[in-house]
Write a structure and sequence with these properties.
Elements: H1 7-29, E1 33-37, E2 43-50, E3 54-60, E4 64-70, E5 75-83, H2 92-99, E6 111-124, E7 127-139, E8 142-158, E9 163-175, E10 192-203
Antiparallel strand pairs: 1-4, 1-10, 2-3, 2-10, 4-5, 5-6, 6-7, 7-8, 8-9, 9-10
Length: 204
C-alpha cells in the first residue's frame, strides 16, 4: 500500500499508529491490580500513655479487606475491616474493660473500617515510593479523616503463594475523643493514641 502514498503520508500514519499504541498501553497499565488482605499478616496495634508512667498497648487482628495498587500509574487504594472483638492486650480483664460501653462498646459497634481516599508517592532512586495514605476511619459509630505515614511499602513475588504480594507498615496518631471515646481523659489518661498498621495482601 505504501508505494501509492507519499513519504509524508506514510510518516503521518506511522506517527498516528504509534500514538494509538502508546495510548492503549497507558490506559491498560493504569488499571491497578487487586490484592486481597492477608489476615495473618495484617493488624492494627495501639499504644496509649497511662497516667504519664507507662504505655498501655494492644492490637486488633484477623482484619479483612482489599488493596489496589499500580506503581506505574502511582495509583493506590485500600479498604480494611477491623473486628473489634479480636482486641488483645495480654490482660483479659483489660480486654473486657476496653470492649465495654466505656470504650469501644463492641456490642453496639462490632467493626471499625478504614477507607483510603488518596495515596501519596515520591520517586526514590527511580522507583515510586508510597509516603502517605489519606483516608476515613469509622470507629464507634463516627467517621473522621486520618493520614497514615508509610514507614515502608514494597511488593515481591511469593514462592510460597506463587503470586505477587504487596504490603507495608504505617503509623498515625489519633485523638480518640473525636470518635466519642473519652473515658478517663479528665483523670489523666491522654486522648492521643498512637497506631501502627501492618498490611499485607496477595494478588488475585
Amino acid at each position: 500500500m505504501y508505494r501509492f502514498l507519499s513519504l509524508s503520508t506514510i510518516r503521518f500514519y506511522h506517527k498516528a499508529l504509534t500514538g494509538l499504541l502508546l495510548s492503549a498501553w497507558v490506559v491498560g497499565s493504569s488499571h491497578a491490580a487487586i490484592y486481597h488482605i492477608d489476615p495473618t499478616h495484617t493488624n492494627v496495634r495501639f499504644a496509649i500513655d497511662h497516667f504519664k508512667t507507662s504505655t498501655n498497648t494492644g492490637g486488633f487482628y484477623n482484619l479483612t479487606g482489599q488493596l489496589e495498587y499500580d506503581p506505574v500509574a502511582n495509583i493506590g487504594n485500600v479498604s480494611l475491616i477491623i473486628p473489634l472483638n479480636s482486641l488483645m492486650t495480654g490482660d483479659k480483664a483489660f480486654d473486657i474493660a476496653l470492649k465495654s460501653a466505656d470504650f469501644f462498646d463492641i456490642e453496639k459497634f462490632p467493626l471499625a473500617r478504614f477507607e483510603s481516599t488518596k495515596w501519596h508517592f515520591q520517586r526514590d532512586k527511580n522507583r515510586p515510593a508510597v509516603t502517605k495514605v489519606d483516608g476515613m476511619l469509622t470507629l464507634h459509630g463516627q467517621t473522621n479523616p486520618v493520614t497514615l505515614t508509610a514507614t515502608k511499602f514494597n511488593c515481591y513475588f511469593s514462592y510460597i503463594l506463587k503470586k505477587s504480594v504487596c504490603g507495608g507498615d504505617f503509623t498515625t496518631t489519633i485523638d480518640r475523643t473525636k470518635w466519642g471515646i473519652s473515658k478517663y481523659t479528665l483523670l489523666g489518661i491522654t486522648e492521643k493514641v498512637d497506631l501502627t498498621i501492618q498490611i499485607e495482601a496477595a494478588k488475585q
